[in-house]
Structures are given as structure tokens and as C-alpha cells.
Design brief:
Strands 1-2 form a two-stranded antiparallel ribbon. It is of the alpha+beta class. The radius of gyration is 15 Å and the shape is globular. The protein has 3 helices and 2 strands; from the N terminus they run ααββα.
């Protein structure tokens, strides 16, 4: 949800926080196309996506996230 004017700060935060997973953004802030499409209204936000690309969970935190992960990996 970063803006183009903050690109350097965004890249520095990725490095400083040692975020090793892929980072993507169109740098359009809250008008970010993916954010609008997936109804991102807050940061942090999470989605669980299956191997076929289908969203199988979102807005999960704490015990609710643990339960969903247990359900997925118990199969």
C-alpha cells in the first residue's frame, strides 16, 4: 500500500526487517489494484492461498489461524 514517493523507504524496510518472501506493489497507495480487488482495508493483512491460487482463508490471526493451518496440513 506504499506510494511511489515512498519507494526507497519501502525497499529499505524490506531489507532492514529481513523480509525474505516476495514483495510486490504497484506503489499506488490505497488505490493499489490488488488491494482494491481483494478488499484490503488494513495492514497487516493476510490471505491463505491454495496451490491452485484459490483464497482459502483471510483475516486469520492467532488461534483462528492456527486452527485453519492445522486443518489444511492434517489432510
Amino acid at each position: 500500500m506504499d506510494k511511489a514517493v515512498d519507494k526507497a523507504k519501502w525497499l529499505k524496510a524490506i531489507q532492514d526487517d529481513r523480509l525474505t518472501w516476495k514483495q510486490v506493489g504497484d506503489l499506488k497507495g490505497w488505490e493499489n489494484e490488488a488491494g482494491v480487488l481483494y478488499e484490503v482495508t488494513a495492514i497487516p493483512m493476510n490471505f491463505l492461498i491454495d496451490p491452485n491460487g484459490k483464497i482459502i482463508g483471510k483475516y486469520l490471526r492467532g488461534a483462528e489461524l492456527d486452527k485453519k493451518l492445522e486443518e489444511i496440513f492434517a489432510k
